[in-house]
Every structure is written in structure tokens, then in C-alpha cells.
Amino acid sequence: MNFNLKAAGTLISRAKQFTEEKLGQATDRTAYDDNFDHLLLDADRAKAWTERLISNVSIFLQPNPNERLEDFILTKFDQKTNKQNIVEQLGQCMVEAGNDFGSSTQYGSTLIKCGQTHQKLGHIYKDFIQSSVMGYMQPLKSFLEGEMKSITKERRTLEMRRLDLDAARSKQKKNKMLSRNNNTPVAMADSSDADVRHAQAEFERQYHITRLALDGLPNAQNHHLSCLFDLIESELQYHQKSVQILEELHRKIGLSKSIPHASSPRLRTAIIKFDYEALDSNELSVLAKETVNIISDGDDSDWVTVEKQLSKQHGRVPRAYLQIDASLS
Questions:
Q1: Beta strands of the chain (E only): which ranges?
Q2: How many whole angstroms separate alpha carbon 210 and alpha carbon 77?
């Protein structure tokens, strides 16, 4: 019974202290040191960004929100599904269309080959999702459910211990003021001093526990870095396998010869023979031995419009000042 009364008294004092702080009536609030405040900010940052990373990687792996919800529900009920993904569905559609058109026709046989290829792509995409979830997302989720939840719990306990300490100090301060007026028994003043010592010891103990938990954050981030490397490695392997499968399809359907790309015309260039100072806004100042691109060379026999290669400034320069590259004429 005494224990319950004491616990109730502690809760009341804690609530009173919290209310006074919120209303700005409490002036003596125990402050943490700058380094500890920095650790608290690091923890908040780690929690917020880890949650956002998990969310965005989930969207990256499964853009369809309905599919994500279904996967989440099945995971919660520990049920596995062999449901086809969109790549496999496309592959199956192509195979069925090819068979209907006839595997003996060129279009039908090509559709079948493309469909089989997309089914392979769908399979390796599933493997990529699985490796990404197990190698990156799951460790981050475990961090939130384990270390971060523990840190949050210890921080909450520390805040309660701080409120208890500040409430005890406030009570001690009031009793000392009353004792000066001879209105408070000595026993009551001694009791408030003992309460402060007890609250101080509990606060320091919880402060040490919380700090140990916060100091472990760099180790967690090192682990997350390793998991990030695994994610990139899985993504690289997925794309490499995809390229191999598509190159195999490329050969099977007779597209092994490389498709020629239209080459973009090379710009004509010229070397400046002498320094030239522009006389108006249509002209361009250039220096001897500078290389420029020729923009226009046919409107005026005495002038050529050129462009500087770095600054991209352009303007007219006398033809006599240019040594034009004849190989591209």
C-alpha cells in the first residue's frame, strides 16, 4: 500500500513538473550537455531516414501500392505466394499469343521466344527482390524494431527521471524558503534533501544507460553501409543477368548484327591566326592560337560566325584571321 502511494505521489509530481514546463512556469530545468544533445539529434536523424529509406526501397522494388499491401498482409500471416509478377505475366501473354498465331510462323515463334525470355527476366527479378529484402530492408527493419526501439525506451525513461529530479529540486527549494521563515520542520527539509539525492542518483544511472545505447549508433550505421553494398551488388548482378538473357534473345531472333547508329556531323573548327578585338556586339573577341567552332561560313565571304569551345560565346570574326580545318570542308 505504501509503495502504491509513493508511486502515485511520484506520478503526480512528475505530471506537475511536466505541466509547469509546458506552461513556462518551471525555470530550473536540468539540461543535457552539448555532446549528449548531439547524440539525441543523431538518433532522431537515424530513425527518420531509416524509415524513409525502407519506404522508398519498398516502392522501388514494388511500385504498385496494392501489390505492396498484399505482400505485407501475406508476410504478416506468414504465407507465401507464387503469384506472377508483371514481367512474368507479359512473358506468359506473349507465349500464349505466339502459340495461338502458330509456332510455325515467324511472328508466332518470335513471340514465344520473347515470352520465354521475359519469364526468365521475371524469375531473376524475383531473386533480386528477395536478396534486396533480406540483405538490405530486413536489417534496417530489425534496427528499428530492436536498437532504435530500445533507444526510444531508454530516452523516455531518462526523461521521466529528469522530471523526477527537477520536481524534487523544486520541492527542496520551496522547503528551504519556508524553513527560513521557520514554517517548515527540519525533518521535512531533510526528507526533501534525501529525495533530491535519490532522484539525482536515478537520473545519472539512466543517463549512463541511455548514453551507452546512443553510442552504439555508429556501429549500426557501419552495418547498414555493409548492407547497402550488398544491395548494390545484388542490383548489379540482376542487371548483368538481364543483359545476358536479352543478348541471348537478340541472337535467337536474328538480331545479332549491330544496328548502325546515325553519326552526328562533326563541327568544323578553325585556329585563330591573330588576336582580334570585337568592334560591336555582333563580333567576337578572340586570341591567337585559340581553337573555335565554325557556326556559319556561307553568308559573307569576308566574315565567319564562330563559337568558343569552352564559354560557348559566339560572334563574327574576319575570315582572314582564321585557319580553317580543310579536312571537314
A1: 269-272, 291-296, 303-308, 314-318, 322-324
A2: 35
* Rounded Cα–Cα distance for residues 73 and 49 (Å): 24
- Provide the CATH number for the domain around residue 84: 1.20.1270.60
182 backbone φψ class: left, alpha, beta (φ>0; ψ -120 to 50): left
Residues 6+ apart with CB under 8 A from 151: 43, 210, 213, 214, 217
Asked whether the whole model's pTM tops 0.70, one would answer: no
Kindly tell me the burial class for residue 317, based on how many C-beta atoms sit within 10 Å of its own C-beta (0-12, 13-18, 19 or more).
Answer: buried
Domain that holds residue 288: 269-328
C-alpha span between 93 and 99 (Å, rounded):
10
Judge whether 89 lies within some domain. Answer: yes
Sequence length of the chain is: 329
Element (H or E) spanning 227, and its range?
helix 217-252
| Ramachandran area for residue 180 (φ above 0: left; ψ -120 to 50: alpha; else beta) | alpha
Residue 248 and residue 278 in one domain = no
Q: Is residue 258 part of a domain?
A: no
Distance CA 92, CA 55 (A): 30
Cell numbers placing 6: 509513493
Scan for cell 524553513, then name that residue. 179
What's the whole-number mean pLDDT along residues 80-98?
87
CA-nearest of 167, 196, 149, 115 to 47 is: 149
pLDDT tens digit string along 221-245?
999 999 999 999 999 999 999 999 9
Q: Are residues 73 and 170 in the same domain?
A: yes
